[in-house]
Amino acid sequence: MEEMVNREYAERILRPPLLFAQLMAAPLVEIRGAVLPGTPAIYAFYLAGEPVHVGRTRNLRQRLRGHVSNSHYSASFAFKPARGATGLTATYRKGEGRAALLENPVFRDAFDHALAEVQGMSVRYLAVADPIDQYLLELYAALELGTSLSEFDTH
Prior knowledge:
Elements: H1 7-12, H2 15-25, E1 29-30, E2 41-47, E3 50-57, H3 60-67, H4 76-86, H5 98-103, H6 105-119, E4 122-127, H7 131-145
Antiparallel strand pairs: 1-4, 2-3, 2-4
Helix pairs in contact: 2-7, 4-6
């Protein structure tokens, strides 16, 4: 019996390397103060010229604005390392959520430090409207750039 690969999958799996080449050809811009389009996109964060995160979004401008805001709801990329640095975690119980963590001075200092680091990063992005292309490119880019795959874990 011959093994068959789904035709659509076989066609789609050829796209990530081509899209990745386009992403890598895009200019590296400072996150803070960047004028970004409000389009669906894949983006890669860089710290001191090294890739540290690959993400996808339906609205690049809003997502990156959120990453550099002083909000525990939208600045998740700063919130995660602050949790790691302090060993503190939020729960869904009343009074033990993210807002409560920010009231803890040790956590607040770690969050502020991580947020300042994110605000100093650069970003490279590529507009990608198709959600399946986004998923495949996000995974491909994370593997190629050697960034964390923890975003692919289930919650």
